[in-house]
Design a protein that fits this description.
Radius of gyration: 24 Å
Low-confidence stretches: none
Number of strands: 2
Structural class: mainly alpha
Number of domains: 2
Order of helices and strands: HHHHHHHHHHHHHHHHHHHHHEHE
Number of helices: 22
Largest sheet: 2 strands, parallel
Length: about 475
């Protein structure tokens, strides 16, 4: 009983320190930038707006369905972002649980929740922009949702063959993922083609379900790639469209990216901690048959899989910055899932060669040191947690909310056609500064003006930031 009380107390403490503060932020967010351009669209023109999006904005059909939903009233906007964050956490726990089952590892409730918490926290500490991942709907409906869908896809993909009961679900996931993020198009097709080759070799004939999923994925990809807007996006970057350059640099960048993050401090100690935790779970599975794959083959597949994701920004943008903002959010998140899978597989692989049960005490102490060391260093040094706690303790979120609400009150009550606003002075460090500009002709200002006119039934011609006060 005392042991369980301690375990539940530890889990509660981890939740309160490392996850609960993120929930508080949702009460202080507002629509920003791209949200402005979608907030004033008429809901009765939803499907015509989707067609217009596909032709003129981008070919991501799933993204258009999500972005153009009428979710931009403030209370509903905050609710949707909050629910998305909860789903993000739940899906990561689900992924951890199913992965342990896949490897035939029996685990206690405490072990699953602890490893799930660590998986979530690792992700939170590596995100280049927490704000753009969770607190800005225009970004989260592309990158957060794509990551969530990818984890679900990976969970079903890893079964030995595509089971009939999951076949329809996999088809839906493929449709949604490819239609939501260009970054995962090549990656999903790569994995499906690999599965087709593997299943065909094992069965000595083409697996019909695998073949259908490959063909279906290609069709979905063509819908995105053949959009008039997709070709237009390529023309926006001078270095885009160079296939050879993109292939070479995606491989080189992936290698560099993996090495830097595998040995990143303090994450290297939590990777070691997770590896030891997996060994402990294996040691406690007395007599159980632990599954594993050849770790070298899995690592090689993982490398080229990540390369296919990196390839897309290189091909579409020429020379992208992979480790910042929204692109970095998706890349880092997928990387952590791949690291997690490879660590579990490596521990399982060696379980058939080594007897772990003799060293349970030493392993338990080592795991505890690694986990507590990582958690302590994260809350003390990680910029995402440092910014979050600083903003909470200095009331930056509240000050920001008051300033934004004051701005909206000015706009609600003004009779002027040309409105000049003072800048927001208390932007939280955790937020991206999406301030409107001093030039009323900028697209942010134009969309913001249209949104305000729709919200308050105004006829404002322009809204701009005070020139002498703009940063």
């Amino acid at each position: 009983m005392k042991k369980k009380a301690f375990q539940y107390g530890l889990l509660l403490l981890i939740f309160l320190l490392f996850l609960f503060p993120f929930f508080l932020v949702f009460f202080y967010i507002f629509p920003q930038a791209d949200d402005f351009c979608r907030a004033f669209l008429k809901s009765d023109q939803y499907f015509s707006n989707i067609i217009h999006w596909y032709k003129s904005h981008n070919g991501r059909y799933t993204n258009s369905f999500l972005s153009l939903l009428p979710v931009y009233s403030l209370s509903f906007y905050r609710f949707i972002c909050l629910i998305s964050f909860i789903i993000f956490i739940c899906v990561q726990f689900y992924f951890v649980r199913k992965l342990l089952v896949l490897y035939n590892l029996k685990s206690s409730f405490f072990s699953i929740i602890l490893i799930g918490f660590l998986f979530v926290i690792i992700n939170l500490t590596t995100l280049p922009s927490v704000y753009q991942m969770f607190y800005w709907y225009a970004s989260l409906n592309v990158y957060l949702y794509s990551y969530i869908l990818f984890l679900l896809f990976l969970r079903y993909y890893l079964s030995e063959f595509f089971e009939p009961r999951y076949f329809f679900l996999l088809s839906i996931l493929i449709f949604l993922i490819i239609g939501n993020s260009e970054m995962l198009i090549v990656a999903i097709n790569f994995l499906l083609l690999l599965k087709l080759i593997y299943s065909s070799i094992r069965k000595k004939s083409a697996d019909k379900r695998s073949l259908w999923l490959v063909l279906f994925s290609i069709i979905c990809s063509m819908i995105v790639l053949m959009s008039p807007a997709t070709e237009g996006k390529l023309n926006n970057y001078s270095g885009s469209g160079d296939l050879l350059h993109s292939m070479i640099y995606s491989i080189l960048s992936t290698g560099s990216f993996i090495i830097k993050n595998a040995f990143r401090w303090p994450h290297i100690i939590i990777y070691l901690g997770l590896f030891i935790l997996f060994i402990i779970l294996i040691a406690k599975n007395k007599g159980g048959r632990i599954k594993s794959f050849n770790p070298f083959i899995l690592a090689t597949i993982s490398f080229f899989f990540l390369s296919t994701i990196v390839f897309v920004p290189y091909y579409t943008m020429g020379v992208p910055n992979l480790t910042v903002s929204r692109i970095g959010n998706l890349l880092f998140s997928v990387l952590q899932a791949i690291f997690f899978l490879n660590l579990l597989n490596l521990a399982s692989f060696f379980s058939t060669r080594l007897n772990y049960s003799k060293y349970l005490t030493l392993l338990s102490v080592s795991a505890a040191v690694c986990v507590l060391g990582f958690l302590g260093l994260s809350i003390g040094n990680n910029s995402n947690y440092a910014n979050l706690y600083s903003d909470i303790f200095n009331s930056k979120f509240l000050l920001y909310k008051n300033e934004v609400e004051s701005r909206y009150n000015i706009l609600k009550n003004t009779e002027s056609k040309e409105v000049e606003l003072p800048p927001i002075k208390n932007y939280p460090s955790s937020f991206r500064n999406f301030e409107i500009k001093s030039d009323p002709g900028e697209w942010e200002n134009s969309c913001f003006t249209k949104m305000i006119n729709e919200m308050y039934d105004k006829q404002i011609h322009s809204i701009r930031l005070s020139k002498n006060q703009e940063d």
